[in-house]
Amino acid sequence: MTSPAPDGQRTIALAAVAGAHGITGELRLKLFANDLGSLTKGATMLVGGAPMKLLGIKGTLKAPIARFEGIPDRTAAEKYRGSLVEIERTALPGLDEGEYYLADLIGLPCVDADGNVIGNVSAVENFGASDLLEIEREGGVRSLIPFAEPMAVLEEGRFILDPDFLA
Questions:
Q1: Which CATH number does the domain 102-165 belong to among 2.30.30.240, 3.30.450.20, 3.20.20.70, 3.40.50.2000?
Q2: Burial, 76: exposed, middle or buried (Cβ in 10 Å; 0-12, 13-18, 19+)?
Q3: First CA to last CA distance, the chain
Q4: How far apart are CA 163 and CA 167, in angstroms?
Q5: DSSP for residue 91
């Protein structure tokens, strides 16, 4: 998930707030990343669109609990239920050649092997097996295609798709 930050920068959603934990303002999170390390103590993040410093993270990958500056108690924490925990895209670590963040794939053009425009990537999903590209075609029709060769090949800032795999 990506969205514009209040200052116009692009943000990346790292988690969603599932609710409050305890009485001291801690938040239960639904993590969108593969490890708790994506939430770095001391980093400033946007929680419900408001900049907040992460004071600490504990728990497990499936049940992380976070404490943010400015959320003093359970009542304040409950107000953030359903909110996103985001970070500015520019704050993420740099990548090596051939690496990318899934959020950077959203919006990339999709063509067939002959270069004919098929559509754009509107989302990247993973329901447990592998990554799927959601392709939005003309007229708003959306299709899912596996992000795997030869069905979808990322090349030079665009995807070359095999249209036989689009529903």
A1: 2.30.30.240
A2: middle
A3: 23
A4: 9
A5: G
Consecutive sets of 10 residues in the chain, 167 residues long: mean pLDDT of each? 52 92 96 80 90 93 93 97 92 80 89 92 85 90 89 91 81
AA letter at 150: P
Q: What is the pLDDT of residue 125?
A: 87
Give residue 162's Cα distance to chain centre. 26
Beta bridge partners of 24: none
Query: Which two three-digit tokens encode residue 59?
Result: 């728990």
Token pair of 101, please?
């963040």
CATH number 2.40.30.60 given to 2-91: yes
